[in-house]
Amino acid sequence: MRDGILQRNFVQLFGQGEKTMILAHGFGCDQTMWRYIVPAFTNEYRVVVFDFVGSGRSDWSAYSPERYRDLNGYAQDVLDICACLNIRDAVYVGHSAAAMIGMLASIRQPDYFEKLVLIGPSPRYIDERPDYIGGFDAADIEGLLQLMQDNHQGWAQYLAPLVMSNADRPELARELGESFCAMDPDIAQRFARAVFLADNRADLKHVARPALILQCAQDVIAPLEVGAYVHHRLPNSTLRFMEATGHCPHLSHPDETIGLIQDYLRHGA
């Protein structure tokens, strides 16, 4: 059972620290996106990286449309990994969709987690004006999902530069686009629906663990209004505005990302 779960999610461990840090990638990505972050924490932490089922080098045959119909199935992946590795009081670092996934996991099994670090979190991508600004209207999301269905490669080439930003470094958008394209189209569409149609706003008040929110500038996926919303409704949260632009600061601005996480872990709010 233990080996099966670790193989299912292609779990890898780095470092010899007594504490544990879990790095969870966002939609369309895999654990390689953390390659600039891992070395900064291996002296103090046992760093756990993994791929969600259907991403990277996970066991794609383990994908179940029923299990992964919403983000709770991915949260169960996190909990399974924690149980397998006997993890307690971990620092969980989640990017984008994995931020919400980690929050859901922490609600169900709070003892597994000590602190959460949420990079570009969004509990709801669709606007419900005037009360909530998520960054997209419903037609935007449906159009994106339709493009995925009609033209998987075209969708990746369209979305990657918007997500990554940093137009002066096109290699970053190219890497992200290749990561999008590497996913099975059917799994990618189902994962996208689980992410972009989710509404986890009501879950925020149930998160018991302290959290750091890292808010990038010029983030079209999780704009400033979303970061502020999460901060105001997430108990015991700290909001830090980054100089980094785009939605993937762990790739585009790793030094700033590392510095803010280290400062939070050492000094708190």
Automatic annotation (TrEMBL):
> Gene3D superfamilies under this entry?
alpha/beta hydrolase (3.40.50.1820)
The parts of the chain that form a coiled coil are none
By its UniProt entry, which SUPFAM superfamilies does this protein fall under? Answer: alpha/beta-Hydrolases
Q: Which InterPro entries match?
A: AB_hydrolase_1, AB_hydrolase_fold
Q: Which residues form the AB hydrolase-1 domain?
A: 22-258
Q: Which family does it belong to?
A: Belongs to the AB hydrolase superfamily.
The name of this protein is: Sigma-B regulation protein RsbQ
Biological source species: Paenibacillus methanolicus
